[in-house]
Amino acid sequence: PGPVNADEAARAAPFHLDLWFYFTLQNWLLDFGRPIAMIDSFELLYYYDEYLGHSMWYIPFFLILFMYFSGCFTASKAESVMPGPALLLVVPSGLYYWYLVTEGQIFILFIFTFFAMLALVLHQKRKRLFLDSNGLFLFSSFALTLLLVALWVAWLWNDPVLRKKYPGVIYVPEPWAFYTLHVSSHH
């Protein structure tokens, strides 16, 4: 293929602001709205969440995100930038994934997906392919999530009550457990 001019590169892979904004908003509303609203559909969601297991939801969820991510590569280095709106959405998206990983107790699935994404980035880099704006957004959100989980675990590492509740090598306390133990009990 011949060289790509700047106009074609800018049009080739636009950042999907509408997709990522609504996806982030929906995630926040469904996860945080459930305990507040507990309208009949939320009770059904709670039942599926608790009794059918997180794996039935989170494995396909992360698989779909990874499949989407695998299509977020471009041959043009010029397309490998995040626009301003994407930068603004990285923090709420990363915070949501932090909540998902910690409250859902799915750290192993998350870290496996993150390392698969990293391996794909390194593999595609050898082919001279770069992440487009959507891939950069998703990878940045996951990187921020990993940082937040590491900070969360480090902060609560020596908490004796949470340590007893979450024994084992992989120690990732749930935010609601922290809240009920340390915040709501003081009010």
From TrEMBL:
Top-rank lineage group of the source organism: Eukaryota
GO biological process: lysosome organization
Keywords (A to Z) from UniProt: Membrane, Transmembrane, Transmembrane helix
Xref: InterPro entries: CLN6
Pfam family, one: CLN6
GO cellular component, one term: endoplasmic reticulum
Residue ranges of the TM segments: 51-69, 81-99, 105-123, 135-157
Keyword Cytoplasm found: no
Protein name: CLN6 transmembrane ER protein
Species of provenance: Propithecus coquereli (Coquerel's sifaka)
Gene it is expressed from: CLN6
